Amino acid sequence: MSSYQFNTLQVEQTGDNVYHVQLNRPDKRNSIDDDMWKEIPQCFDSLGTDSSCRVIILSGAGKMFCSGIDLSVLAMLQDPNQEVARRAIAMRIGVKKFQDAFTSIEKCPKPVIASIHGGCIGAGSIDMTSACDIRLCSQDAFFSIKEVDMGLAADVGTLQRFPKIVGNDSLVRELVYTARNFSATEAKDIGFVSSVHADAKTLTDASIKLATNIASKSPVAITGSKINMNYSRDHSVDEGLNYIANWNMSMLQSEDLMTSVQAAMTKTPPKYKDL
Amino acid sequence: MSSYQFNTLQVEQTGDNVYHVQLNRPDKRNSIDDDMWKEIPQCFDSLGTDSSCRVIILSGAGKMFCSGIDLSVLAMLQDPNQEVARRAIAMRIGVKKFQDAFTSIEKCPKPVIASIHGGCIGAGSIDMTSACDIRLCSQDAFFSIKEVDMGLAADVGTLQRFPKIVGNDSLVRELVYTARNFSATEAKDIGFVSSVHADAKTLTDASIKLATNIASKSPVAITGSKINMNYSRDHSVDEGLNYIANWNMSMLQSEDLMTSVQAAMTKTPPKYKDL
Amino acid sequence: MSSYQFNTLQVEQTGDNVYHVQLNRPDKRNSIDDDMWKEIPQCFDSLGTDSSCRVIILSGAGKMFCSGIDLSVLAMLQDPNQEVARRAIAMRIGVKKFQDAFTSIEKCPKPVIASIHGGCIGAGSIDMTSACDIRLCSQDAFFSIKEVDMGLAADVGTLQRFPKIVGNDSLVRELVYTARNFSATEAKDIGFVSSVHADAKTLTDASIKLATNIASKSPVAITGSKINMNYSRDHSVDEGLNYIANWNMSMLQSEDLMTSVQAAMTKTPPKYKDL
Amino acid sequence: MSSYQFNTLQVEQTGDNVYHVQLNRPDKRNSIDDDMWKEIPQCFDSLGTDSSCRVIILSGAGKMFCSGIDLSVLAMLQDPNQEVARRAIAMRIGVKKFQDAFTSIEKCPKPVIASIHGGCIGAGSIDMTSACDIRLCSQDAFFSIKEVDMGLAADVGTLQRFPKIVGNDSLVRELVYTARNFSATEAKDIGFVSSVHADAKTLTDASIKLATNIASKSPVAITGSKINMNYSRDHSVDEGLNYIANWNMSMLQSEDLMTSVQAAMTKTPPKYKDL
Amino acid sequence: MSSYQFNTLQVEQTGDNVYHVQLNRPDKRNSIDDDMWKEIPQCFDSLGTDSSCRVIILSGAGKMFCSGIDLSVLAMLQDPNQEVARRAIAMRIGVKKFQDAFTSIEKCPKPVIASIHGGCIGAGSIDMTSACDIRLCSQDAFFSIKEVDMGLAADVGTLQRFPKIVGNDSLVRELVYTARNFSATEAKDIGFVSSVHADAKTLTDASIKLATNIASKSPVAITGSKINMNYSRDHSVDEGLNYIANWNMSMLQSEDLMTSVQAAMTKTPPKYKDL
Amino acid sequence: MSSYQFNTLQVEQTGDNVYHVQLNRPDKRNSIDDDMWKEIPQCFDSLGTDSSCRVIILSGAGKMFCSGIDLSVLAMLQDPNQEVARRAIAMRIGVKKFQDAFTSIEKCPKPVIASIHGGCIGAGSIDMTSACDIRLCSQDAFFSIKEVDMGLAADVGTLQRFPKIVGNDSLVRELVYTARNFSATEAKDIGFVSSVHADAKTLTDASIKLATNIASKSPVAITGSKINMNYSRDHSVDEGLNYIANWNMSMLQSEDLMTSVQAAMTKTPPKYKDL
Q1: Is F78 within a domain?
Q2: At CB < 8 Å, which residues of chain F contact C?
Q3: Prediction pTM value
């Protein structure tokens, strides 16, 4: 566990094969500073190859999930001494680094469940949680796509992922253009969260229960499902079918199929090896 | 009609230009065995070029729609005498054959209405019905994406088609990772079915009424709409517009346009030639 | 303002930086004749580069939004004196011209809000409004994808855009194949409109309020958001992230970021330059 | 061998694991009639799954390789009794059947070497041989993309495959637009054939020698190379890399790697199992 | 002919159905000024729909083909009074306008033959001629991709089209990075031009002869070939085959097929109607 | 310079802004061992962001360029203790790591010139040098795509990049399927190298001269050209044009344009700032 010591994240194992990652700057309302931008991909890259980890819960410590990017970070992007082209190239490198931080959640081969309470605002909200697999929230949660009010178009995932995971493009654009708050109920109605829970406590319980359930399944099946759903989102149906046909050339030779059959026949819970 | 004699499917014509295909292994809860994998594409390929057929209803005989892949089939995929690479190539051929079976429903140029009652589970559920155009169900229907519990990632269409036809990616992934049952109501809420009907009888009536309505339309317009919606799902808007511009180079020269105008002017139902 | 004089459209400025475009053939139920096909792209191309315009509302004058394509236009497409290939090429040019008319709404770098009351039918309905950013409607609105009843597959945007902006492909296909009317409530349920308003008056008020809100934001942020959401709809997440990283190379150097920060710090409304 | 009895093709095994397919209508200059269109995919589909076959040579019997599509076939496409739209749909089915015939050569998982002498004209020339992996010809070979002189754009592969396998788009278009003959030397210069041989006899010898060489290699390595080159031609470099990473998940576990290492160490020719 | 009056281009008809477009600022070595940027798309758009035109020759008046973009144009792009973001948006509009000018050559449905003598430098060289179908040059022609020496990456087509039409990416990049001159012989070796001619006079004769030959073919076949080759360059083989199958649904019903057959049988030159 | 200390690579600066990277295991014929796989991306990632570096030469120390992957590496991929699925996942991670090593050359924003003498074989040959921008070789160079002889399909770039940079797909496949050696002359004929030089000494001189020339150009123009050519190789022409239009929104505001103009006017060599 010593490898999961971070300044801005708290990581703990909660039950078999489930890890809980908390944004841990509660006094700063979990705003994302330069350290957190660096530690998020370190954390998810490590958990992604940690065979003891099968599912990850992501939440915020304190009163809210996340208040967005820390203004100190934006300031760093500006260097008035450079001419336009060289400054542009430096900014592109910076933006891509931030994008890669959230993409590490998507590329992590284990499911990530965002467990959202309180505010979920700006870069730390739709951008980050849209890169997660599943989103649950409490009734008090509220959301805002804040970037337009900062004078910029959201560039770390919201415009790219959010419209693809919900079913109401009209409302998506309304929320992007106005930067207004929207509630847990509205988030549920457009399909952004799977379920809304009474309060932070019941949300946590539901998140752990769901994570524990998924962690008990074959990790070969789970990681294959995530990788193939990510691929299929960005490809045609034919491409997606071709991809999984290649994937399953090896995976259907896994012992996990026999383990599953035997568990079903003996009506005992299956026990799968770690990846 | 003699061409529609199958071991595992029952095919009958129900009214003008409407065919009803039933999965017909009720004592096996319509599980998909090797015969059914072969007969499904034969059936839909034939109906696709049968000019007397304009719309197809797909349902299950007996107590449920389909209980999934028959375990006898999975066993066939394994051949312990082959080394890994040669076994992998054999499995890829097998998986692609199964994929092609369901894709024959999607490629069939006539609309296919899935009429679902009772259980709709595993390979015979989301995979098969996601390849249909329209899904109706009765209140007693329940669904499950069962593959994870068999130790594998779903490889015959669910991960490829299901997320593209509903509007809640968070719940989609929850259902895939947990393999839990979900109800008719939940299916309606996420946009998987168009409508829920009181029981199997009213479901059948509604399916036939809808099919008969569609069958009365211009088959040139209907087949063009299906082919272009399938294409557009997998392409950009610009590509989709370009595609239909080419398609309609010939189709706008059809006599069906004039037939439609005259029917509208004389307020009599139009009568279109078969394709 | 003299540049916005059209035969079939009425354009007026309603408040700072908001323009209101009305389909203005109320006695013809705003059916789209040859003039309107030409004037729509002229209007949106001009507004797109008019620095005084930041948001556009699109509505219909009189009793309904739009009754679809004027039959006089369809007749023009036919020229019985040409042989099939040459007629086909002429038709392709015609169809592409119509497609480009609606695509001009999508390509316009300012958000377009469709404000729909009464009937919204055929080519003038789902095709046109699907190319808008946001759709609001009144309770009395009803919709119909009429093309199948005219003997043709919809070729000016419905089949290409409509399924991508809502979250229920089953119902989309049912509506396409049957050409039946659907209500404001059904449109809300599947995510086609953001909100339903009591009547035409409250709808107009809500549209203006929303437009005015968006018009007060940074135009650099708004136009960047629209251009990037349009791009991302048609590309993978990775491509979308790469695109906005290039876009923001210059945009993050805008003075609008500093203007936004200063407004936030001084708690005064920001004032952004026109584009 | 009894399964390779065709009317229009002669198939024989020439040495270990090498099959020779000859277009066998020499009195008709190997023009492609309806039978040949049907037998080509039957032949290549069968050889594709025949474990005794690892490489295929394709040549023409008699004085030339192939004189193109038989005019009897084109006549069949026309049915003056159908209205334009229904005739168009029938033609599309016909064209796709022809396309699939040649695509069966490309999809065949074994390398196909076209061995071309004499005329290679029209549909039976560039279209068919462009779907092969390797092209060798004799000095007397000449080529012509004849379709423009028949009043149509080539629709069975030339326009799609030919420009992608050579390196001079200017000359490609000149050859397509003029339908002029081009020589073996010109074919070599633009990269359409690998090598030119003195006469038909030396061409045959060279073809067999090359085929025999390839047939001695690991069939796991050869089929993987063909499938991945076909895929990469149509995808970005990143997609191609991702594809082969999945492919080699199982293939790198093949015993053929160890067989190869042992052969290298013992300096004896490796002996690989059939696929 | 009165419609082809331009300040910077001279257009004349040279024989049946062949038009000759000349860059006509010989005293400025045919550098592309603002007028020429506007007139090029006007010219090619008009010729594209002029039924008397089937093939276009593009050459330069005076001592050379073209010396590149006129520096007066570049100056216009700069407006020091705008802040970075607003200047960037203005520049993007300007660059796209220039790109569209050359793309009008590619989109013109008639083949365009670039006939190049003397210098062919910068924006007026590889960018413009890469958008043509066929390139012929005289022995004295020389080429240079000049943009790097102006401090910018070529943005009107060279980097996008040039590498796709030749077969030596290593040399392409060498030429781009060094901006060095390359000769007619080198251009022929890498496949950029089809043929090299002794001098300007023989070049013109060869261009007219080639154009006249193409103009005598079925315009249905020629335009279909160009449109499909353009499409196929940018798509997979499968997409390209699907595209032409739709295209030929109408085109195979053309009378040009019968005209071609009858001409072949009667051994008389076919006579095709204009498009 | 202390940051460029590697076990397997020697890096030195040769003139202004030019770095020379040498594969430096001459006693092992520069075979790629585990260390070199790790150091290649470290080296190119560092040079990519080192502002003193504008161009990179890549060559091999000793008697040849590179003899391919070191067999010790292949052995590491195998772990007989794991079951098939888990071993497959471990191999995929390994292969992707190797792919990323060579892709770091392609992603490096500075041009990389491969300077090849002697043998260039297997993984260290076509795979690595195909990821470079420009390839020069000496007359004694020879090449071999060795993977098939090792029982596997090449999975670190050859099948993905090699066919896209040369103009003779027939010969490409012959070389892949046979693993035979090919000469400097053959490499030049198919467009794999730009030029062939008499011996290693003149090759080095030519490489340095070319690199020095490129290094004297605007780094804004050079890096933009490389990034856009890489992008365009994998996208349609329209996508490529759109990409560079966004790129040049900021780059055309660079001071390098004015620097270039002034240098041209004063006929003095321009002096550009580092990136």
Answers
A1: yes
A2: 243, 246-247, 249-250, 253
A3: 0.97
